[in-house]
Amino acid sequence: MNITPELVKKVAENARLKLKDDEVKKFAEQMKEILTTFEQLGEVDTTGVEPSFHPIPIKNIAREDIPKECTKREDALALTPHRQDPYFKGPKIL
Amino acid sequence: MQKFIQDAKTGNIDLVDHTHKAIEQAEKINKEYRYITAWADAISRAEELQKLAKTGKATGKLFGVLVSAKDNLCVKGVETTASSAILKGYKPLFNATSVQKCIDEGAIILAKTVQDEFGFGGFSINTGIGIEKPLNPHDKKRTCGGSSGGAAGLTQKANFPHLALAESTGGSIADPASFCGITGLTPTYGRVSRYGLIDYANSLDKIGTMAKNVEDAALLLDIISGKDDHDSTSQETHGPTLVDTASAIHGLRIGIIPETIGEGLDNGVRKAVTTALYKLEQNGARKIELSLPVSMKYGLATYYTLAMSEASTNLAKYCGMRYGASDQLSAPYNEYFTRVRTANFGEEAKRRILLGTFTRMAGYRDAFYKKAAQIRTKIIQEYAEAFNKVDVIITPTMPVVAPTFDELKKLNPLQNYLMDVLTVSPNLAGIPHISIPCGTSNGMPVGLMITGPHFAEHKIIQVAKAYGA
Amino acid sequence: MAHKFTTDAIIGLEVHVQLNTKTKLFCSCPTNVAEPNTAICPTCLGHPGSKPVLNSKALEFATKLSLALGCTIAPTAVFSRKTYFYPDLVKNYQITQYEVPLGSHGIIILDIGKLIRIERVHLEEDPGALIHESGATLIDYNRSGIPLCEIVTHPDMHSPAEAREFMKKLLNILGYLGLFDQNTCVIKADANVSIREKNYERVEIKNITGFKEIERALTYEIERQKQQDVRRETRGWNAEKGTTYTLRLKETEEDYGYIVEPDLPLFEIDPNWIRAIKATIPELAEARAARWVSDWKIDETDAKIIAANIDVAELFETIAKKIDPVFSSRWVRREILRLLNDEKKELRETQFRAQELIELFKLLIDKKITDRIGQRIIEQLAKKQFSPAAYVKEQNLVMVADENTLEKICKTIIEQNKKAVQDYKNGEEKSLMFLIGQVMKQTKGTAAPNVVKELLKSLLA
Q1: Nearest-CA neighbor of B428 among B390, B373, B385, B389?
Q2: So what's the ipTM on this one?
Q3: B172 catalytic, yes or no?
Q4: Where are the domains of chain B?
Q5: Topology given in CATH for the domain delimited by B1-292+393-469
Q6: Which of A63, A76, A77 faces C53 most closely, judged by CB atoms?
């Protein structure tokens, strides 16, 4: 399994993580070792096997379209300094 | 426990005084062992309950009992961080359903217990930036296990009536229970609502219980079980209450998987486990050898691939907006997000995010994420077939006793992951399992893990009680 | 990249429709709340520990729409996580349907008979609403979690006009199904457009609101592509300026790292449930109009125009059961619909009722009143409910066609308008119209116009 520093940087960018050069190197080595071990998954014959996304079958749980009580705006805004009432504030786009 | 609850209800015990003393003790324990990340207002609650006791209105199966909650369980108004710096200062606006159920039964929420950041680890050494690692209650040079390390340590050390809410994704209840010498009960996936649980891996996370004995662990599990409209994956529970389940072993078929007591196991651990099995046989159990080749060989890779894929998406929400750690807002937004995340996630969290992002990236998704999901099906089937032949499966919980911190330093990340080998497959299959103490090795406790089929918690409890836990 | 395109322009659309449910897709917060950040809860704020629970109505609506578009419904509905980072996306992943869309292989047929294939229809959650202010980005999360239905077409449209027609037809279907409230729900589209001159290099234009803007944006973009260099990119549409602008280059497209949403179950779609929903789909406009033409032989254009408005179509069908459909259709189109358009009103905002209109049309068809009187009465029926027959009787509005009566009045008018008479005799046809008008005025509009005309002509000959 070839895990290059470039690949690690790409993955880090995708995950919004900034890595220093020595970190890139270290993670690349560790990831290589770990993923090479995980590659053994390919040994298992899974022809015709459906994937399981839960350990038990879970089907058809939904709710009625009935409005319920909401969170108070002040309670939600109080959780962050980034607020400009009545709005939440975010980093600038562009 | 039951006597205490009775006394509390009838007012035979001054609940406020008792709670003061318990908190004092907990603070002392914490100073030495570092199990607690945040304290709830237990005194106000005790005063409330005391009033009810005085007016004869005291009800609830946990009346007056102090309950600690793993830091990834939301407790309204109490700092809840999953032991991560990125959630520093976050006080949820709601209680996790499991926490609320305890409160509804008259419990007093004591504190949040420390863990590996978001559950990423088996030794509680991956606590978040600025958060101290907990110490093993038997030997401060050793780890508590993880990720529910604080919960296990506090359960062992507390001398007041106390129960712990804990959580397991790949073995995080059984592992520290084994290392700390207490009982850790992990239920079937879906038995307990995950609403209010800060997610590690949604198809693997289970909230469970820790106590000094099986009966108390079962009591707490009874209370937190049940379908919840807030969690689409939660299930109805049927059958008798677990706390009333009687010990039973005669004629029970116990499955043994030879690889689990072969090489790679500490000698002392093997001895303790085989002795325990012998005891059960003496009481009428029958040993049957089983082979679960896919689970044993591929369980770890399957577990980590799926867990990290899900975890990397769960952790995307932590970006310095709306709650938790933040920084000076600046453009462009991607740079802001990156800055906050990089500064506040610990190394293991970053590693898992990177791995989990990779395993679901275009080009790798089929070989890793999708493949692992298919192998999961095979593992679930393997266990289902095994339980046609046996009633329970017994293995050691961990291949070793609690390592020292020095020993752990020598392990690389992959070696760390390999320690989970015995617990990951039951967790992948979502089957219930209980870890009970079964002797010592080198003075440190050894854990025995009893697993059963889906929703057959009563079976594993029967056997655990028969063993004498 | 090899392609098989031959036309001048290639257009594909991705339309996002807000569904008309009472609550959001994954939580019970109400939709349609104006006051910012008051329709919020831990789930639609993405608070740690919160979990999604599907709104069954949203699934029903999306299935209904898929069926109305002729789609095949997936036997199992699966939800996916699409991970990307943006301030309006509370979890930094959107719950959508990637692996398997709810509906696939649908079509909309344009009037000229062209098929626009629908590749997929699926459910997903809306992000919050961004409000840009200088120096900061402000967000209102009322919109976070609102149910969206995404409809993706094949690139089968070849002109902005075709795209506009597609959107109109889609809106019409949405109206018929009642899943979409024009007053409160929003419809947005992303468009993919490429032209032959630039070797079909594809540009995406994101977030165009409203079907009129879609035609404008596409027209502009096609022109721009003819004149400028074209590179593969994502552009935005500035409705005020009427221009598109670069948002980001497509090369740096995010890898969304899709996984199946583990907090939600699988939804097995029961064929009986599909049948039940199908039964609730009303006959849609196209089919209805075609039926009227075939059964009642009414004019095709009249049929299409009436059928396009679901309320008026219902009204028409009720009237047509009692009064000749051809006659009714003309009056419904030329008087009722015209009135609604002129006053920019919906039928339900007027007092029109089938009962009174049937009575009125009977008077007209029996030639008891003139067209002009009929028009006047219709204008009044829009504002209040009353019996036209009784009114006509009261006000003496019955058509006068008796030649003797009319002849007397004509003679009077001729007497009183000597100049007009002279002009007519000199060849001014208009003056005849004037004289007819005077007779109508005298008779308060009740004189049969054709009889008056003939009488005047013979009197003045």
Answers
A1: B373
A2: 0.97
A3: yes
A4: 1-292+393-469
A5: Amidase signature (AS) enzymes (3.90.1300)
A6: A63
